[in-house]
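Supplementary Note 2. Why include the ligand at all?

Several targets in our set were suspected to adopt different conformations when bound, so apo predictions alone were not considered sufficient. For every target with a known small-molecule partner we therefore ran a joint prediction. The input for 5-amino-5-deoxy-1-O-phosphono-D-mannitol is given below.
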Amino acid sequence: MCGIIGYTGKEEALPLLLGGLERLEYRGYDSAGIALIEDGKMIVEKRVGKIRELVRSLWGKPYKGKTGIGHTRWATHGEPSTENAHPHTDEKEEFAVVHNGIVENYLELKRELESEGVKFRSGTDTEVIAHLIAKNYNGDLLEAVLKAVERLRGAFAFAVITVHEPGRIVGVKQGSPLVVGIGEGENFLASDIPAILPYTRKVIALGDGEIADITPEGVNIYDFSGTPLTKEITVVPWDIISAEKAGFKHFMLKEIYEQPKAVGDTIRGLISSGSELPFSLKSFRRVLIIACGTSYHAGLIGKLWIEKYAQVPVEVVFASEFRYSDSPVSEQDLVVAVSQSGETIDTKFAVNYARERGAYTLAIVNVVGSSIDRESDYTLHTHAGPEIGVAATKTFLAQLAALYFLASSEHPQKERLLEELLKVPSMIEKTLEDAEIVEKIAQKYMKMKDFLYLGRYLSYPIALEGALKLKEISYIHAEGYPAGEMKHGPIALIDERMPVVVVAPQDRVYEKTISNIEEVRTRKGKVISVGFRGDEKLEKLSEEFIPVPAVEEDLSPFVTSVPLQLLAYHIASKLGLDVDQPRNLAKTVTVE
Ligand code: M6R
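The joint prediction is reproduced in token form.
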């Protein structure tokens, strides 16, 4: 939530900041702004709305400053408005701050500063940071930041510049992500790696409680007591091509088509990093999978695989619920945190909760060096590459690959299972060949107001995920439900205006699902089914039929999920909606 970027170097900072902000826009897009130091003065420009509004407002203003910071906002404290847009400055406009996260004690600090005569101009928590730094400044920005940080509580990351020390940026990380990019005669700060990928692949992922002090000449890292730290520089294996649209209309569509590669790279990455895990699933009393949103749906499928292959009981919990439960976690538990970003605050807190109680923590994350990656005992990385669309697609399938790898780790026929898994990328490719069928269905049903998604066993989480995709990008109400549970309530919703998407591969529950389809038809619901190619029975029972290649029962989620992603995509795209940046959402949710 919110993206921040900083640049100091030999180039004009403005185009670099705006380019970086565009790549960070998926993190929030309520307003955007930049601050630059030019001729000893602080220049601040901000606008409500997307980055393009900010860019428009900058036409004809050829700022030349070589040090600056930028921000794209997902509003938490204070409505989206120009006053509340970042950067925020102190009263004399000598210090400018961009911030991601929440300062929990900002009201207390605000009252204190106001009682000292400080006039606030926004309703944000961020502004207190600017005033606190100005108040503590005594000729050294780092020192002032260290003093200000002592007073702040919450989870946040921020970057600050001052007219007194042009060329210097200080960045702080406590709970929200922040990386340092190392260039030649120039250095960067950003919330996420893709923002700086066109300029450098060398990054330092800051840990919580760390401060980066950057100038064009160098980078120094400290802890909050001011002690210098030695940090490892990582060379990121992605390149900018994979973070651009490559001819697709939207990132989401590009990412759907990248799924064969994302899954293939993930499987090969996991196999080549050694197929022996440093723990045995069977040695734990239970496995607890903790995640949010799409990652939670991946976890539901992981549960069925782990219970089947490893015969260990598995619970899947929403991270936001888990944290405030009194779950009796102990060293007998394996806690698996599934997260694309590795920064989702609920999941991160859940990992900490589990670690404090002695559980072994395993992360399944896409972003190398992210908080959850670093804070867990062991990580299985998904190698999906950067995912820019807010709706998770390729990272979902990559998470499934990692969970399948985990589940099969102790199975006597592990080799055979992995061989089957290696066939999945070509199956996904075949699934994508029928994308046109899905687009036609989208055209026909795009005006419907509600959708029901049904599935049983492995297809139930796929139904949940299909409904989530439709909701988040098309704003159409959709519900996912276990097909067998429908008769206990939701069947009352069905009439001729209700499209019912049924995920029905030929698996152990196929016949039962067919009976559920009959129940829908009897009530005149419009059945859109996803089933194995050549399944004439299913096709005859359905208003619309989307074929997917026939695969082994356990691998069906890899193919059945794809048409549901495409259905949501085409409906949203045909409705003219902002597919990659749906309203009210952000890619990485770093607030509770
Ligand atoms: O980065 P994470 O996997 O932890 O994110 C979890 C959810 O916020 C995420 O999956 C969200 O539900 C997506 N927008 C779904 O498409």
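Residues 187 and 515 are 62 Å apart (CA to CA). The mean pLDDT is 93. Comparable summaries for the other entries are listed in the accompanying table.
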